[in-house]
Write a structure and sequence with these properties.
Blueprint lengths: L1 H16 L1 H43 L7 H14 L8 H9 L8 H15 L6 H16 L8 H20 L2 H10 L2 E2 L7 H17 L17 H35 L3 H19 L9 H9 L6 H15 L6 H19 L3 H17 L2 H11 L5 H14 L10 E4 L6 E5 L3
Parallel strand pairs: 1-2
Antiparallel strand pairs: 2-3
Helix pairs in contact: 1-2, 2-5, 2-6, 2-7, 2-9, 3-5, 3-11, 4-7, 5-6, 6-7, 7-8, 7-9, 8-9, 8-16, 10-13, 10-15, 10-17, 11-13, 12-14, 12-15, 13-14, 14-15, 15-16, 15-17, 16-17
Length: 430
């Protein structure tokens, strides 16, 4: 009997060491991890989305809450210093934890959760997907420390990507784009295909759990799309060229404003109070609240063509002040709103399909500033129900190629060149 058990054990060991056995073990392990992170990401994203929605409703019901922005900013800075996270670099830290050995601090998740809700309550021009990446990466890094899964260092970094995909999808409702963004954003020129299975599983589960919790997502339908041809591609090509320049300018202004505010006001309490006050004064000066918050409403207005020529410039200004001041949330939805409003203005000027130009502006600028062309095209497909892929692919190919080595994220690495197939392994310009 003992000899039989030993033979069966040796057969099992040999099978597990075989290529088929290793594939099955990989599949089982990462399906379990994906389901855990997908469920946790969906619940977290669902609760987070609900709080952001309620904070936004409260701010819109009481417009004078904008005057509390400087005080709410002080609370955010105090929370980070209370937990010793004054130098927390947010999304940059998450990306660096995958490409290098930087650790994700334990306080990152709770802090970004609370501070982003406060930022939206104050009306700061920030998004929530940056917070999603931090929350997801934080959850993935915590799960990686559980010894039961016996993960090596590279596999631990994969769990960070899986967590990012889960919460990003739960908040944005685009699971395929969320999965590929998490695989693509770390190192430009490389996609971490080993993470595809768990990232996709976690992203779909995260979205579905968030939907069950009542989370709703924005999506759009084209009324009609023009036939693809020389006459219709030419406006898209020119738009792509302009978006490439806009992407570079947006990043320079965004990071430049942050650096200048830190230089002028080294004390973070003074910096966020002064910049928050400037934000309030600018809001009064322009006489509208459309630049408050993430920009989701601005995207809908742009798709309908109900924005002015100057809208994208003012959104860049408000976003740069809010993020440079230290308000939390991220840059992605503000980026989409800048691209959408620029595309709508461009469409009006040339008298060509403002809705299509707004959609291309949104997707093209996203590709320019994140350097994630595949995720950008997929984002367009999921947001517009599978329509417009030819136009999205055309504008993304231009903006990605011509936007240089600039990035929203200072720790994003360019492994290979954009215009030549050469090995670079360099950080972005910022």
């Amino acid at each position: 009997m003992k000899m039989k058990e030993e033979r069966e054990g040796s057969v099992l060991k040999r099978f597990l060491k075989s290529p088929v056995g290793k594939n099955i073990a990989y599949f089982v392990r990462w399906v379990v991890i994906a389901y855990i992170l997908g469920f946790l990401g969906g619940v977290t994203g669902g609760v987070f989305a609900r709080l952001i929605t309620e904070a936004t409703k409260l701010r819109m019901a009481y417009p004078r809450m904008i005057f509390l922005m400087p005080l709410i900013g002080l609370v955010i800075v105090w929370l980070y210093h209370l937990l010793g996270e004054g130098k927390n670099s947010g999304t940059n830290m998450i990306l660096a934890s995958i490409s290098s050995d930087e650790d994700i601090t334990v306080a990152t998740g709770p802090l970004i959760f609370v501070s982003t809700v406060f930022s939206h309550l104050a009306g700061a021009s920030v998004g929530r997907e940056g917070a999603a990446l931090q929350l997801g990466g934080w959850m993935g890094s915590l799960l990686a420390k559980i010894r039961l899964f016996r993960l090596d260092e590279r596999e631990k970094k994969m769990t960070t990507m899986v967590g990012m995909a889960a919460v990003f999808s739960a908040l944005f409702g685009t699971p395929v784009a969320a999965a590929f963004f998490s695989m693509e954003v770390i190192s430009v020129g490389i996609i971490y295909y080993a993470a595809m299975l768990p990232c996709l599983l976690a992203a779909f589960l995260g979205r579905d759990v968030a939907v069950l919790m009542g989370t709703e997502y924005e999506s759009f339908h084209f009324n009609a799309l023009p036939q693809l041809g020389i006459q219709t591609v030419q406006p898209v090509v020119l738009l792509g060229l302009l978006l490439s320049l806009l992407g570079i300018a947006f990043i320079i202004i965004l990071h430049g404003c942050e650096h200048k505010l830190k230089e002028w006001f080294p004390n973070p309490y003074i910096r966020i109070f002064v910049a928050g006050t400037a934000f309030v004064l600018l809001t009064i000066l322009v006489g509208t609240d459309i630049y408050e918050g993430s920009g989701a409403e601005l995207i809908k207005m742009s798709i309908k063509g109900d924005v002015g020529i100057e809208t994208f410039l003012l959104k860049i200004l408000f976003t740069s002040i809010a993020i440079g001041a230290g308000f939390k949330g991220g840059e992605i939805i503000p980026t989409l709103s800048v691209g959408a409003s620029f595309g709508a203005a461009y469409g009006k000027i040339i008298h060509f399909e403002p809705m299509l130009m707004s959609a291309c502006g949104m997707i093209g600028l996203f590709a320019a500033v994140t350097n994630c062309p595949i995720a950008s095209i997929l984002l367009g497909l999921e947001m517009f129900h599978g329509d417009g892929i030819a136009f999205f692919a055309a504008v993304v190919s231009i903006t990605f190629s011509l936007s240089g080595y600039y990035s929203l994220y200072g720790t994003q690495k360019f492994i290979y060149g954009k215009l030549k197939n050469v090995y670079l392994n360099r950080l972005s310009n910022h």
